[in-house]
Amino acid sequence: MAAKDMHIAVLCDRTPNEHPSLGRAKLQMVTALRDFAGQVTEFAPLPSRGRIPHATVDALSTQITNGGYDVVLSVFSMLPTHKLAIPQTIVQGAIPYAVRGVPARSTGRGKMEFDVFNRPMARWLAHRDATTLRQLDMVLWPTDVLQEGAVKQYQLNRASSHLVPLGGHCDCLGQGRARLISHVAPIHLLFVGEDWLSEGGAIAFETLQVLRRLGIDARLTVIGCLPPDKHVNDWVTVHPFLNLSVPDEQAAYCAALERAHFLIRPVSDSFGFSVCDASACGLPTLCCQAGQTPVQENINGHILPIRSGAEQYSNWVRSYLDSPGAYVALSRRCQDESKERLTWSSWGAKASQILGAGVGAKRNLVG
Q: Are 204 and 191 in contact (CB under 8 A)?
């Protein structure tokens, strides 16, 4: 089926106010689908916890059946769309942001591999996720770690699993300017996250401290959370929250990305939209080996071993300070990676191609 001829129903289980980062990403995703796939209709958020009422399922089934849709797509959620009573010709797909159990296994923070199943409600939700994933016609995964973890944990069909990295949040980046690093100018580190402690903010701060003890004029900018007082000093700038829908606040976010030399992302249980933005402006990312971050080794950053500490992160900074030409080359590779894989245009083009092929295949199978 021609990509631009599709009619897609988009379902979700949360409002933008519940998770601003995902809300903004969903808006950009819908725009990309309209640009590359065709008509998109967004439905009101469905309950994210417990069972969806039968009356809601019946009403939604009727709307979709009578709406002439080709695809039903759950965005950033694991809604049980297989329970919908809709024609078999309609492709059912999902774009998960996280899957229960997979992050716990992948981050290497000492959790049990299946600790998500230790509580009755968690076991029920995980069972619902597994059932939903197995019933879907296709799943568009944002990272290879999430894809591989879910495929192995829930024994999913690889043929229906597709890796399609998402884009970033900021459209003002990617001007192609060469990024430089030098011993004679301050070194700016950047941490973007919503939870300072669980996302490894302490490691970012300790990296700053290690560099300063070595006589390097390092600075750290924190965006999205509020570090404790012990992790704030004269060389730390904090923006507890930036609303990227507000021009002045988006400008502050973009300025921090443009000024930084490294994005520090020690723990990454979820997709890193900031990594996409960083890559767009040539900013390398230093991240954990097993995290769900769209970093390709030595392409748009470096992937450190599990449980790496401040010494390991600071070593990469120091190595590029001693080899500024290598840093310039890495910065350019970041921008190339962004243009090829980490924009909403690239996501929209690939997603619409996959969805279009799925619609055509299913119609041929059913018909």
A: yes
Helix/strand/coil for 91: strand
Q: How far is CA 234 from CA 178, 200, 228, 243, 262, in A?
A: 29, 20, 14, 25, 19
Token look-up 């001829």 returns 5
- Longest Cα–Cα distance of the chain, Å, equals 71
- Rounded to the nearest 5 percent, the helix, strand and coil shares of the chain are 45, 15, 40
Eight-class DSSP state of 262: E
Please report, in tens digits, the pLDDT of each residue of the chain (367 residues total): 555 789 999 998 776 666 778 888 999 999 999 999 999 999 988 766 656 788 888 999 999 999 999 999 999 877 777 788 899 899 999 998 877 666 543 444 433 334 444 567 667 777 778 888 888 999 999 988 888 888 888 888 899 999 999 999 886 565 656 689 999 999 999 999 989 998 999 999 999 999 999 999 999 999 999 999 999 999 999 999 998 889 999 999 999 999 999 999 998 666 789 999 999 999 999 998 655 788 999 999 999 998 899 999 999 999 999 999 999 999 999 999 999 999 999 999 999 999 999 999 887 876 6
- The DSSP letter of residue 116 is G
Q: Say if residues 300 and 275 touch (Cβ distance below 8 Å).
A: yes
**Sheet containing strand 38-42, strands side by side:** 38-42, 6-11, 71-75, 91-95, 138-141, 161-163
Query: Rounded to whole angstroms, how far apart are CA atoms 362 and 72?
Result: 13
Structure tokens at 13: 């289980």
| Cβ-proximal residues to 58 (8 Å cutoff; 6+ apart), any chain | 85
DSSP state of 161: E
The CA distance from 198 to 268, in Å, is: 9
Say what the pTM is.
0.87
Tokens 């849709």, residue located: 69
CA dist 156 → 24, 130, 361, 364 (Å):
29, 8, 19, 23
**Residue 117 burial (CB count, 10 A):** 17
Question: Pairing relation of β-strands 138-141 and 285-288?
Answer: unpaired
